[in-house]
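Please predict the structure of the following assembly.
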Amino acid sequence: MTTIRSTVLGCGSYLPEKILTNEDLARMVDTTDEWIVQRTGIRQRHIAAEGEFTSHLAIKAAERALAHAGLTAQDIDTIILATATPDNTFPSTAVQVQAALGMRHGVAFDVHAVCSGFVFALTTADTFIRCGQAKRVLVIGAETFSRILDWNDRTTCVLFGDGAGAVILEGREASGTVADHGILTSHLRSDGQHKSKLYVDGGPSTTQTVGHLRMEGKEVFKHAVGMITDVIEDAFKATGLTGEDLTWFIPHQANRRIIDASAKKLDIAPEKVVVTVDLHGNTSAASIPLALDAAVKDGRVKSGDLIMLEAMGGGFTWGSVLLRW
Ligand SMILES: CC(C)(COP(=O)(O)OP(=O)(O)OC[C@H]1O[C@@H](n2cnc3c(N)ncnc32)[C@H](O)[C@@H]1OP(=O)(O)O)[C@@H](O)C(=O)NCCC(=O)NCCS
């Protein structure tokens, strides 16, 4: 049976120039490098410059993904951008990227699933491609979480950073087996009853302010591993594959302890896990494409590799995407 698979043509990422180390943070709030590294694995994060917006990070990541794929914006028909920190309430950050890339055709829109945003955007792109709505999609995760942090709250401000990553997907005919290149299966979930555990205490309709990120860290931690492993097991059930078949596990980069516990529960060997959280902290929707791009550009990810992506975030939302590079 032949089918259409969304195959990856290229990827790119961008981190703002300014680096904020744990030592820098220890001069701002009552914390230490040791506490942050031990609890999270984070050593530094990048912070967008004044006047540098989510769209600017997204444009740089998109340009790098286009160059990696050997394409221009004229070759793309759809942009799907995942963010929880848009430049403005509207229009979408995606249309700002579309304009900056000189794209006057096609369609661009944002999706919002916080830290699961990139997995939700990839799944949306894959669905558009497989049902014939799109041919080539630029999928971006981009965030400036530094703008919604309470810099006096040591329990949250040490965890997050800014950045962007992008991939380009194209619909190609394939055999319909798990040997195909491209997205093989994806599984999305949400459960709004957990919304008070990780949220922003402002918004246009409620407070007419942007607000700050608030989190019950222990509660998030408690749910994270179970939710992540559930959607990954769904992917294994749908394909008949197992943790042993994976070449790479590229999880949302929130916390080293969550990543390690998830990999252990799924029997994924530590050397298959791509970790970049130490270098950029939790960049929400940008973290998976940042980690993916790092592993592609340093030569770890090769054609034919089987890659599991997963994320969990505010809402809660969570999801997995299994793909062959
Ligand atoms: C946030 C997190 C690292 C906190 O670790 P924890 O072991 O649960 O720590 P606790 O919240 O129990 O706090 C332990 C102590 O450290 C203190 N503490 C909190 N933040 C601190 C910091 N940055 N530096 C130093 N001490 C800190 C607390 O005040 C508390 O002190 P107390 O015992 O005197 O009250 C952890 O809960 C976590 O990783 N949660 C998931 C967060 C996440 O990934 N969110 C994003 C999902 S997309």
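The longest strand covers residues 162-174. Residues 31, 35, 39-40, 115, 154-155, 158, 215, 217-218, 220-221, 254-255, 258, 282, 312-313 surround coenzyme A (CB under 6 Å).
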